[in-house]
């Protein structure tokens, strides 16, 4: 089985580095960026099955990235991460097509289960 390509997008660099490292140790093809703009640039260059996306970022917010990504890559799954998102933000994210949302700090085993479920769901919607 090929490793699942996962993009982590969060403005907290240490969080991105830690999650990328943990996912790589568990066999995922994980990459990370620290802004919505960098995420869009990378997504235009290569495909990812799942994007872990922080909702609150300066510049291009997670909800803005989600909205743009849904238009360009409808089969890609997005898992929203939030440390302080309002219920309205979460509702908006789900309305825009997020697969799931998770509160930070996130449990790595729960995160891996969600990534696997999202990847399987995305594979089904592509084919």
Helix count equals 5
Shape estimate? globular
Q: What number of structural domains do the residues give?
A: 1
Describe the sheet with the most strands.
5 strands, parallel
Record field, number of beta strands: 5
Describe the fold and architecture.
The structure is a single chain. The chain is α/β, with parallel strands linked by helices and 127 residues long. It has a single domain (5-126), classed as Rossmann fold, CATH 3.40.50.2300. Helix content is 49%, strand content 20%. The protein is built from 5 helices and 5 strands. The protein has a 5-stranded parallel beta sheet with strand order 2-1-3-4-5, with helices on both faces. Helix 4 links the parallel strand 4 and strand 5. The two termini are 17 Å apart.
Task: Name a few traits of the molecule.
alpha/beta; 5 helices; Rossmann fold; 20% strand; single chain; 49% helix; globular; five-stranded parallel sheet; 127 residues
Topology record:
Blueprint: E1 5-9, H1 13-25, E2 29-33, H2 36-45, E3 50-54, H3 62-72, E4 77-82, H4 87-95, E5 100-103, H5 108-126
Parallel strand pairs: 1-2, 1-3, 3-4, 4-5
Helix pairs in contact: 2-3
